[in-house]
What we know:
By secondary structure, this protein is an all-alpha fold. The protein has helices at 2-14, 38-42, 66-74, 79-114, 124-154, 157-196, 216-223, 226-269, 275-319, 326-369, 372-385; strands at 200-202, 209-211. Helix 4 (79-114) packs across helix 8 (226-269) and helix 5 packs antiparallel against helix 6 (157-196).
Amino acid sequence: MAVLAAAQLLDELMGRHRNTNPNEKIKKPNWEDPEYCKYFMVKFCPHDLFVNTRADLGACPKVHDDEVKELFQRAETSYKKSQYVEEFLRFCRHMISEVERKIQKGKQRLELMNSKPEGPPMTQAQTEKNQEQVKLLSEKITSLVEEAEEAGTRGDVEQAQGLMKLCDRLKEEKDQLLKQQENSHWSMTAELAAAQEKQMEVCPVCGAFLIVGDAQQRIDDHLSGKQHVGYFKLRQAYEEMSEAREKEQQEKEKKRREDRERDRHARSGGGGGGGGGGLGSDRRDRERMERDREQRDRSDKDRERDRGDRDKEREKERHRPVREEKGGRHEERERDAERHRERERERDRDKDRERERERDRERKHRKDRRSPHERSRRRSRERERH
């Protein structure tokens, strides 16, 4: 621990790269490296809150770097960053649960200390009478034990057993009287102690015992102590981050619902009549026509490129030296090339026919989707034109 503390002190004074050579390339810090403390980057490190207290967690084995913390704060939201935040909240929740259990045990301890014994205390005359009865019962028990031994020696087993049962009942009565006397003594002692001692309470933040009505200076010393301040900071950070996280989740859910509503209205708005639906359909028709035009241009460019490639291939075939069987093989290649060109032309014609059918379907679809009011206006314009 001492070596680690000294190394951290040197890092603060001379920097992390104090042992690197002047010519050595220095690695840029990255908040995703495992050597850096996740808790320090998110908010603060709990190991620094309770130094030299009963809740001391020891020195943190990770590196605390303000530059890396700034990089983490400026980084965009990602899954790994959210995991760091989740781990910090989990650690805070664990420590708060432990101190809550400590507070609960302290309250139970105070309730046990403040509880009064059952029954009022005995007076002096009752105590003397109780002692006389205990003394008589002890003498009677002793005599009964001797009689039972004599009966057992004579062989009278039944009489010996009866005497022993009577002896057991007298012993129970004697124990009850002794317990009553002891409770009376404890009640008197507890009342005296309660009168002398001061009333205690448990701190609801750190679980420490406090004296009710103590001097203000002692109360201020407790409130400014490391343990109280550490647990207060821990609780405050956990509540703030939990509220911010819950608010962020609610905003995301709200945005998601708005997007779903917008998509639903966009899908259902195309089938309705009126100006809004007509404008949306016209815009979609123009976009579709633009896509068809771009597709035709690309297909024309592809055909031109294929035609240029075929021309180049024919030129190569024409100038290629023929070594053997010149006539037959050359004619065969020409026929194969002609068949290939014919198939290409047939495919191009099929594509053109398919595009033409697609355009006819789109025109028919647009015509069917026009509102009755628009169709009536078009018919009236046609009648006026004729």
